[in-house]
Every structure is written in C-alpha cells, then in structure tokens.
C-alpha cells in the first residue's frame, strides 16, 4: 500500500489541504445567546489548552513566557485557563515565542473538518516522507474500518 502513496515533496499534503474552503464562523440566527456563550467558553478553553500545550512543548514556564511578552505571569495563566480572551496581537506573540503559526494554534481548537485536515497537514509537514505515508495509511485503514461498521449497522 505504501507504494501507492507518494507525496512528491514534504509540503505537497499541506499545500493540498490548505486549498480547502475556509472555516465559516457565521452564527445562524436560530442559535440562542446561551449557546453562543457556551461555544465561546469552549473556544476560549480550547485556545488556552493549545497555548498551554505549546508552552509545555517548548519547555517554558509561565514566568518565562510572561517576561518575553511583557505581562504578568497571572495574565498567561488566565489566558491558558480560558478566563480571559487573548487579543490577536497576544496570540501572535505566543506563536512567535513558541515558534509556530497562528494557524497552528487555532486549528488545534477547531473541530470543523477543513480545520482538522489543516491541522493534520501542519503536523505532517515536519515529518519524513515515510512517516507521512504511515499516517496516511493509518487514516485510510481507520476510515475503511468505520465504513465497514456502518455497513454492518453497528
């Protein structure tokens, strides 16, 4: 099966997936304000978790990040815990400190298929071709398995 999956260059998968339509964040009129508030809180918690994970990946403390950003450590803590929303400028600062893109931070939070695929593409981008093939094979095997369950009515 690996012979059938050739990615030409390391970035081919990422480029292909970036061509997907952008995420549409418009709220339909029938969505009530309580649902919007819940979605906002979930989103903020997700952004905070993504920032926490990136900080840990980089081996930095909240104190170190706060010093680099020129804020109090409590601010970093409150953002990571989803208590306060970071501005776009702050998100860019985090991304610069962690050596990642804003897209990488935010696609970790979204659960839409295009964003999930972009997240996969971003993760694949840093892997050797043989590992990219392995991930693609695993994804295909999982999809076929789930299709088989659906066909059997499970």
List the defining traits of the structure above.
154 residues; mainly alpha; 434 Repressor (Amino-terminal Domain); 2 domains; 8 helices; flat; disordered N terminus
Rg result: 19 Å
Number of domains: 2
Tell me how many strands there are: 0
Q: How many helices in DSSP terms?
A: 8
Distance linking N and C termini: 27 Å
CATH-scheme architecture of the largest domain: Orthogonal Bundle
Morphology: flat
| Proportion of residues in extended strands | under 5%
What's the mean pLDDT score? 79
Order of helices and strands: HHHHHHHH
As a percent range, the share of helical residues equals: 55-70%
**Poorly predicted ranges:** 1-21, 23-28
By CATH, the topology of the largest domain is 434 Repressor (Amino-terminal Domain)
> What is the CATH C level class of the largest domain, in words?
Mainly Alpha
User: Strand count, sense and closure of the main sheet?
Assistant: none
CATH superfamily of the largest domain: lambda repressor-like DNA-binding domains
Structural class: mainly alpha
